[in-house]
Write a structure and sequence with these properties.
Blueprint: H1 13-16, E1 53-59, H2 61-66, E2 76-84, E3 87-97, H3 101-105, E4 111-114, H4 117-120, E5 132-134, H5 141-160, E6 167-176, E7 184-191, H6 194-201, E8 204-206, H7 218-230, E9 244-249, E10 252-257, H8 294-306, H9 308-317, H10 323-339, H11 343-354
Parallel strand pairs: 1-6
Antiparallel strand pairs: 1-2, 2-3, 3-4, 4-5, 5-7, 6-7, 8-9, 9-10
Helix pairs in contact: 5-9, 7-8, 8-11
């Protein structure tokens, strides 16, 4: 890989005219006209801070980690303890395993938490319902880096649109109530429940099959498509709602991505591309998004340019993320920025051959 010849502070001339005039935060509402007002109160308090939160999860760990049914793992009783304004706060909850690949292959599988409204009222956990907990999968620094890198990608996507899952980085100590397993501590992160996301942005969650990529709101979908190409993520599909949540706002349908651990930017040792893609590695970018002419994509590409410094800042601010990995990843993104310096050529060489999946 070679670094981009231009500095991070320069904007390619072909994109400069399309860049936002008032900075990276200026963008049209992707929800379209006629959308109801977002409910900002629906944002759980826990997601209003970026500080790492130390918590202790206590449950029957051996029983929980044996639950590997991908369709119907049971809910198990647990408690979660964290610091509160007046001292430690402990709340009861239920927890169960979830996922597909990681559920079957991780020592610490990803989890779904379920809180009762009465139990969390007045605590820092108020407003949570059924958030996902992404875990460190296996012991060792390599898997910890995968998790922190995926958290960074969630945070980067949030730079582009509020139509994204809120996240909170945790330092979790897992304690076994049966005393049969030693405590384990590792990074994890919470992502908000889809229903909470929908309420926060003034949308209705959809659970329907056979939704075509072309039937989604075009401006937002173009941004999503380029973002997935940017991080080299091919592990998503709108028609099957694979790693995307669908929301309806007024007359528009929008897709919100999640689960980025198979992206080429992370390059996890277990991530392999689907055979039908005909690429040798997840590091090889392949566009799987919406077909767009260069004129339509220029504002989208300009936004990536405008946010280039902010993307680097997000990576460098993630606690525990290896600085060497950060710099390697930013050099990998340099290749994307080189490709979009000529939007017309980018469309001809990248978008047109592979769009319309």
């Amino acid at each position: 890989m070679t670094a981009a010849p231009r500095g991070w502070w320069l904007v390619p001339a072909a994109l400069a005219a399309a860049a936002p005039l008032r900075g990276a935060s200026v963008q049209a509402d992707p929800r379209g006209p006629g959308a109801p007002a977002p409910d900002r109160a629906a944002q759980a308090e826990l997601f209003r801070s970026d500080d790492v939160l130390a918590v202790t999860l206590r449950t029957d760990l051996r029983a929980l980690f044996r639950d590997r049914d991908t369709t119907s793992s049971p809910w198990r009783a647990a408690t979660l303890t964290l610091a509160g304004p007046a001292g430690p706060v402990t709340v009861p909850l239920q927890v169960r395993t979830r996922g597909n690949y990681r559920l079957l292959h991780c020592d610490v599988p990803p989890l779904r938490l379920r809180f009762g409204e009465e139990q969390v009222r007045g605590t820092p956990l108020e407003g949570l319902d059924r958030p996902k907990l992404a875990t460190h999968c296996r012991s060792g620094s390599e898997y910890e880096q995968y998790l922190l890198h995926e958290y960074a990608i969630y945070r980067i996507y949030r730079l582009f649109t509020p139509l994204s899952f809120s996240t909170r980085l945790l330092r979790v100590t897992y304690e076994d109530t049966a005393g049969a397993a030693r405590p384990v501590t590792g990074y994890a992160f919470l992502t908000e429940d889809p229903a909470r996301l929908a309420a926060r942005v003034g949308a209705t969650p959809l659970d329907m099959g056979d939704v075509r990529l072309g039937s989604l709101e075009r401006g937002h979908t173009a941004m999503l498509s380029v973002f997935q190409y940017f991080v080299a993520n091919t592990d998503w599909a709108v028609p099957f709602q694979h790693n995307v949540a669908l929301l309806r706002v007024a007359d528009s349908i929008l897709a919100v991505p999640f689960d980025f651990d198979w992206s080429g930017a992370i390059n996890a040792r277990y991530a392999v591309p689907a055979r039908l893609l005909h690429i040798r590695s997840v590091r090889v970018r392949k566009y799987r998004g919406l077909c767009q002419p260069a004129a339509s994509l220029q504002p989208v590409l300009a936004r990536f340019v405008a946010l280039r410094d902010s993307i680097a800042a997000v990576y460098r601010a993630v606690p525990g993320l290896d600085p060497r990995l950060v710099e390697r990843t930013l050099r990998y993104y340099d290749e994307f920025y080189q490709a979009i310096e000529d939007p017309q050529r980018f469309v001809q060489r990248v978008v047109e051959p592979d769009c319309g999946w």
